[in-house]
Amino acid sequence: MGDTGTSILLDNSVRKFGIIAHGVSVEVPGPLNRLALFQAKPAKGSDARWLQSQIECIPTIVRLAQGGILNLHTYPELILESLPTSTYPAQPIGDLFQKSPRNSVPGVIRRGLFFRQDFTTHLAKDALGDFVVWLTNIDIDRLIGIPYIAEKMSEFEIRNLKGMEAFKSFLKGINRKHYADAFHLWTAEVNSLSFFLTADKKFINAVKNCRHRTFTCQPISPVDLLDMLGIKERDQLPLAHGSQYFLSGQSYED
User: Has residue 31 been placed in a domain?
Assistant: First the structure.
């Protein structure tokens, strides 16, 4: 990609856990008065220790991204996927990735080239997985041979489609429920990114156990990423679990 730092495609499973606080309101003296605050999310329970350990890596990952050690990326499908859970307006505190730089890369192929859908349908939970099923069951040579479609494709997209046999082989070992993540991984691969950073343990294990692994880019968890970089120390989360804060970031309990 021509960028410095280890290149990473940032999954929304990590992105959402970087939002460590949510808005609340508390009663204060006076008629009908309520004060808007942010409250840090509680720690995960003992039954979710693996996930809690991933969350505790995020401040360090953000620092490394801000320092250029990691080069974070996103792309249109991940941006669309995040819209139903995005916060608006942007949170002044509690969103660890808010000021972390992210570069944009193109997706393998744009869904909009083939389907004209309303926004709600396009954002449906498994719409990307359904697209993967359709794409991997169509005659690619015939598709590329349709002039009005081919003329809208970039050379990058045509090259990706012509090389789709490797992706189809990879999918033989992947459960249907992981097809959207598989498409994200494919996007990271064709953009020559090093890792797909995800907190989806089941997808990571599915790829590890897949006998048809054809990609050089691999999914990796936050803990394994820092271990791979040789970073043992973890930056502290900036907010105490369960505590409340003013919009300025000052503790409400002080």
Answer: no
Its domain, for residue 96, covers 6-15+51-236
Instruction: Report CA Rg, the chain.
Output: 21
* Mean of the per-residue pLDDT values of the chain: 89
Query: HSE of 46 in the Cβ direction (CA atoms, 13 Å)?
Result: 0
Amino acid present at 251? S
Tokens standing for 117? 């859908």
In a domain, 128, yes or no: yes
Task: Count the domains in the chain.
Answer: 1
Please give the model's pTM, rounded to 2 decimal places. 0.90
Q: Find the Cα–Cα–Cα–Cα dihedral 219, 225, 229, 232, rounded to 10°.
A: -160
Contact 157, 110 (CB under 8 A): yes
Q: Mind listing the pLDDT tens digit for each residue in 191-234?
A: 999 999 999 999 999 999 887 767 889 999 999 999 999 999 99
